[in-house]
Design goal:
Elements (H helix, E strand, L loop, with lengths): L9 E3 L7 H7 L4 E6 L7 H12 L3 E5 L8 H13 L4 E6 L1 H15 L25 E5 L11 E6 L4 E6 L7 E4 L9 H15 L1
Parallel strand pairs: 1-8, 2-3, 2-4, 4-5, 5-8
Antiparallel strand pairs: 6-7
Helix pairs in contact: 1-2, 3-4
Length: about 200
């Protein structure tokens, strides 16, 4: 019997979001696309991320057309922007939907292919990711996403009315920034539901 355990790189602590610019610089990122949940555009978390990136003179663009439950259509829209912009790094600020969207955009922008090429079989071809992706830094704003530690991106395939995904270790963010300050404004019910979400996944 043999098994392998691989963990994601995690930075934890109140205020560590302020270091994201330095983290990206360390990863040699010079042009970054930032995926942001549209409900968070005016939040303190986003302001902190943008200020930290600007301080390191990293060229940045924002993509905020994120669906609460991503679809193949919303993934394709993100892929189009990520591909056209010739970015060398990505940041995701939000919940699991935002992080999953960034994962898919990173994959198809790095290794262009027909959409179903990397999608899990039997819905898609299930082709393994050819190699490493560009650096993706995830900044979760809920306590229950877990997406910053996984190589999975989930979406609804509208034409077939099914929920499926893309799964490969290469999709996993290179860094998850877990900052308690980013969850301070969560309503109590959302915090509770997030906890139940991650607990049910763990079970």
């Amino acid at each position: 019997t043999a098994f392998t355990m691989e963990g994601s790189s995690i930075k934890f602590g109140p205020g560590v979001t302020r270091e994201i610019g330095e983290d990206l610089k360390r990863l040699n990122v010079k042009r970054v696309l930032i995926f942001i949940d549209p409900n968070l555009l005016k939040s303190q978390t986003v302001a902190t991320v943008l200020e930290a990136i600007k301080k390191q003179n990293i060229d940045a663009a924002i993509f905020s057309v994120i669906r609460i439950e991503p679809t193949d259509a919303s993934f394709k829209a993100a892929i189009k922007v990520a591909t056209a912009g010739k970015f060398d790094g990505f940041v995701a600020v939000g919940g699991g939907s935002t992080i999953d969207t960034a994962k898919a955009a990173n994959l198809y922008a790095t290794y262009p292919a027909e959409f179903l090429e990397y999608v899990n079989a039997p819905i898609g071809k299930g082709t393994p990711v050819p190699g490493p992706l560009k650096p993706l830094v995830a900044v979760p704003t809920t306590a229950g996403t877990g997406s910053e530690t996984t190589g999975v991106a989930i979406f609804d395939l509208l034409e077939q009315h099914v929920k499926t995904g893309i799964a490969h270790r290469a999709l996993r963010p290179v860094l998850g920034i877990i900052d308690p300050d980013n969850t301070k404004t969560l309503p109590p019910l959302v915090a509770a539901c997030s906890a139940l979400d991650i607990l049910s996944h763990a079970i």
